[in-house]
Amino acid sequence: MMKVWNFLFLVTFIISAVYCGYVYETKTFTTLLDHFNFVDDRTFSFRYLVNNASVSNDKSPILFYAGNEGDIELFAENTGFIWKIAPKLGALIVFAEHRYYGKSLPFGNESYKDPQHLGYLTSEQALADYADLLKFLNPEEERPVIAFGGSYGGMLAAWFRMKYPHLVTGALASSAPVLQFPGVVPCDIFNRILTSVFKVALDRNPDGTPQSICIDNIKKSWTVLQNYSSNDEGRKFLNQKFKFCTAMNKTEDWNTFYDYLQDVLGNLAMANYPYPANFLADLPAYPVREFCGQLNKEFPKNEELINAFNEALQIYTNYTQKLTCLDISSAYASNLGSKGWDFQACTEMVMPTCANGTTDMFIPKKWDFKEYSDNCMKKFKVIPREMAAMTQYGGKRMDTASNIIFSNGLLDPWSGGGVLRSFNEKVDVIIIPEGAHHIDLRADNKLDPASVKESRKFYLEKFKTWINEFQTKM
Amino acid sequence: MMKVWNFLFLVTFIISAVYCGYVYETKTFTTLLDHFNFVDDRTFSFRYLVNNASVSNDKSPILFYAGNEGDIELFAENTGFIWKIAPKLGALIVFAEHRYYGKSLPFGNESYKDPQHLGYLTSEQALADYADLLKFLNPEEERPVIAFGGSYGGMLAAWFRMKYPHLVTGALASSAPVLQFPGVVPCDIFNRILTSVFKVALDRNPDGTPQSICIDNIKKSWTVLQNYSSNDEGRKFLNQKFKFCTAMNKTEDWNTFYDYLQDVLGNLAMANYPYPANFLADLPAYPVREFCGQLNKEFPKNEELINAFNEALQIYTNYTQKLTCLDISSAYASNLGSKGWDFQACTEMVMPTCANGTTDMFIPKKWDFKEYSDNCMKKFKVIPREMAAMTQYGGKRMDTASNIIFSNGLLDPWSGGGVLRSFNEKVDVIIIPEGAHHIDLRADNKLDPASVKESRKFYLEKFKTWINEFQTKM
């Protein structure tokens, strides 16, 4: 009887693990809650996924995903490139989950209870977690380690190499906005690139309409939607039309809706892949084109514009036709830890954004640190440390970095805060003109643009070079 | 009246500041108590000394002393090299005091009260203090910064460059045992070098005595002193002879005395300069030679040996003839923070030592981490983190480091844990055969050996190169 249970357990395990075709063991690693205080001995456990199918000996390379703000399984499923190359490198695959995300909650359900519990959610602590895990997996430092990640995970991968070069041989930082910090890049860069993606989304517009028709309609929508939000009758119309889970009932609800819509537009651009994907949401191929396809002509009447905008929005919210009501409290799927990221943005990851309504399609809004800070105080009782990340990791001067590939897709609004120019011959910059947010880390797809295919070839060769150099030095 | 007070204050200030001939302003900088927890907003102030006499413009270089375990004025007074070269570089001089030492006590008199108050005493926090101070002094990062330091201060200078290369252009790490950690160098290396320094201390011995007479006598003293310590009569003799401030009254007191004597021998070697100095104590020129001069023959009777040993010891303890009683609780001057360092050694700075009695002159003793750890638990209620420093900073692999000079005097027992071989062309290793502990940082002296003079010339040229490279990249 016992054996049957074991067998059933094993089957269940295998079924759950091969979801999406990737097989991994789920393990946990126990480390210090606070790596920077030597009298605090509290520990916690974080999750990591391992696949050693390609490992031939105890000096095999390690491909190490520096987990970012979400459930690590989500990232494992969306990082097909690594699964593909591991056999070619004979490498161990490790996906480490970032503390406070997924199932790696230091205080369980109380992790997000108050600022005191949240205080250990920092990038420095996360990197120290990863360093500890690597020392455990590679105690003699005999195995070359390649860190990689996308977005904030890419930032972590690059910083991991920069701060712990003795543990990390090289890093692939995909779509990593390591420069999106105060005083380094202009605050409107994100919205400017985002707008340009929507501007060129339609291959061709119906006769007579300007190419800017989509962003013109989006711009016009702000005025119209805000007007409708400002009175009972208008809100009644919007509630019926958009089917909000929580009905709008006061003028200020517009702010929530607008914040949500900005996030949706950003996410559409980030996930603007040439094939259907379910990264930030279930989306069709080229979702920005699909979105703009609903807004490709002039709408003489405001209600027509709202109708069309609602149709467009459903590309993001309801592509799978399962929507029962529209939850505008967050534009992110539940397996992305948006609350944790909000906290990080309110402490260390201060990334200024602004809009001017001219070179971008948004309502003009200056970057106002005071307002931002007040908001953080209200939300988390913390004051953001505007300069913390740049003091810790450096922005303007990164010329000592080595063995890092920074890759950016130009369709990705985050590319504005990415490294687009190399500062020495040991740092490679890869530009993917047709690429959205870390498309290069994804699995091969027959619709991949040539630049993505080329970049993946380059990465593999570069990884081999780093591994060779490491082994030569042993 | 007010003016008179101001004037008197100013005079007092100048008098105190020009002590030893170096003029500086004493300032304080307020920063975070915990740089790695973003919900803890507590701050504290640390001291730093500044001299801007050579500064010509707001892009002048900064010479930054990464303060170590002691009163920063002590280090300022013993780092004459920097005072000499600042005018040649047109540089600002900054000596930053390490948290928990000197007057930079985060919790005032309560800083050492218990482990909770001591928890913020770590090298990572100290480096983050220095990073914050540099961001304040050099907000636009337009000024090249050269960090320097000796001993633990040298370790901090090297690590500062390695961890914050965007803020630190280059580093001079003098006598910095960055490799004196578990699993990197053998635990007996310190005592082996120390013994060899005593072995060759005497230019020539009286006819017929072997060159090893000094260390033979030291070795024999352990047996004799331990025997005397083990009974009332013997202890009475020792108490009369050594004039302990707290009389020995039980067999175990030998352990305290032996620990003290080991420290004294180590300090004699570290401060074995060719001229009188008052770094670790008021000492004559070549104090090891002086010490051994008292032990340069055979002593048939034990009491004669003890007499001679006492005479020898007074080279360290009573060179200024002011000793009223011998305090064996610490071999360090009160302006060196030995308690703080004890705590650091019990947390992060685990530097194994051992003796075998054969290749060294000490009582054989294995490195026993368990015993070491138990001792730390007793003293500070902490468990040492054996691997912390090497995980954080790296030991075996430092090949990505650049713009660092590691210098070591071969008369310095700490040189065994220093970097004695360069790992790339951007790291320079300077060996000073006749040098003791960071002699190269001291002021010029006509008795300086040629190797010290040469090394100082090399440093200045290298600093100029780094500064030029920095300015070229601007």
From TrEMBL, chains A, B:
It catalyses: Cleavage of a -Pro-|-Xaa bond to release a C-terminal amino acid. Keywords: Carboxypeptidase, Disulfide bond, Glycoprotein, Hydrolase, Lysosome, Protease, Signal, Zymogen. It holds the Pfam family Peptidase_S28. SUPFAM superfamilies: alpha/beta-Hydrolases. The keyword Signal applies. GO terms for molecular function: dipeptidyl-peptidase activity; serine-type carboxypeptidase activity. It is found in: Lysosome. InterPro entries: AB_hydrolase_fold, Peptidase_S28, Ser_carbopepase_S28_SKS. GO terms for cellular component: lysosome. Its EC number is 3.4.16.2. It is an enzyme of class 3 (hydrolase). It comes from the Eukaryota. GO terms for biological process: proteolysis. Residues 1-20 form the signal peptide. Cleaves C-terminal amino acids linked to proline in peptides such as angiotensin II, III and des-Arg9-bradykinin. This cleavage occurs at acidic pH, but enzymatic activity is retained with some substrates at neutral pH. Homodimer. Belongs to the peptidase S28 family. This is Lysosomal Pro-X carboxypeptidase. It comes from Clunio marinus.
